[in-house]
Amino acid sequence: GAGRSHVRGYLENGISAKDLYLCDVDRSRATEAAREFGVPAENVFHGDGCHLDLVGRVDVVSIATPPFERLRIVEDLAQHVRGLLIEKPIAHRLEDAVRIVDVVKGYRTVDAMVYNLRYSPVFDYLRRIVAEGSVLSVYHEFGFDYFSSESWRGRPELGGDHIVELDIHVIDYVRYLLGEPVAVQSYAYRCRGEGMCRDVYAVFYYDRRIANISIKHGTGRSGDRYFYMDVSLHRPGEESCRAFTEWPEFRLFCGSREVDVGEKHVWRNIYITSVVRNFLSSVKGLEKPRADTVDGYRDLVIAFRIRETLAKGLRAGDYVIGGVAEIQYER
Residues with Cβ < 8 Å from 23, sequence gap 6 or more? Predict the structure, then answer.
């Protein structure tokens, strides 16, 4: 799972396996990961609350647990470590997200969130050329869905629904490119329970920009690939730019010419090697995290606003039409 990717990220950034510690509620999963990456047996802990065994042994911690477990771990560890790298979504409830932000900021712990597209040279280029009046169009496919999941995924009350657990990727990179929206409006296709929809569509409203989002779940098109995406940026009086997945890379065209963004966007490097590199550098005070817990909280606010408006929306056959939701943050 995500935890294994984190281990690989530390190893690829020069951290020795003997300096890594693993913690998992499942003993077999922890020992299997240790065997795979060469982590010494004495550095492996398991069972509920095993994260407490890390106190005094480590300087930084990656939290790649299900979202409903993250607040307790942050509260237990923030005062004892220099940095926390947290998987998305930050939590399964907004009140937990607010508490996580307050805890890490209160202890001045370096806090970073895992949002891989913030580390893409393609998205950095698009972000630089966004202008007033820009229109961003996003088409995103997830090759799998959670309708048939038997774990916490597929359970909205645990943060495992499509909107909070999957679509938050899209929410974050729209925020990364365009900033904070004023309001959002959405509709969806074939919803089964709160946040569990086959397709989700949304419009993000800004003072001088707009974003149109289309997300499909369970297309099967992606196969073993995590997702497929196609992003277009239209600017007044300028040529339009289009970025799209051509696995395992990401290509960018402006007009008819392909744009050279320098370092290639290769998914394996973006997630999670580049994320860990930025996190470790931030702990050393050399730079700032590309995304922190405030970003995680704000993404969750938008996800919940979309989920809430769809839950109360107008039903028309297989479609649900949600109202306009104003976006306001406490943090």
Answer: 30, 44, 45, 46, 50, 51, 53, 54
